[in-house]
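Predict structure. Chain length: 131.
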Amino acid sequence: MEVIVASTVAVLTAGGVYLLLRLRTFPVILGLALLSYAVNVFLFASGRLAIDQSPILSKYGEATYTDPLPQALVLTAIVISFGMTAVLVIIGLAAYLEADSDRIDIHDEADAAATPDPGETPESLEAEGRF
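Prediction complete.
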């Protein structure tokens, strides 16, 4: 069981990092979501992987129980990550509507206009107002 959970955390982390390195907004948001899922699974697994056991001690002093604190942390982390994902989607949508592109590494148009192409002459640059 631990190997499956560890493999799941590794796959989610690898997929999240891969998507974070993309140059588009939506894959970056998905990468952050995958990383948050990986952290949630890791936190959940830190409370011992026990099956069919109660989260609290029984009144007869039975010592087998699961720790409820990681479960509460995961529930809180899910709510926070959902809210942050919604905020990032709205910010990404606003950036897309403003820039007409969802690329992350947008170069400044003034910098692009200031560097002439090798085939352009000073007269053509002056006619366009870029010289």
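Summary: The chain is about 65% helix and 0% strand.
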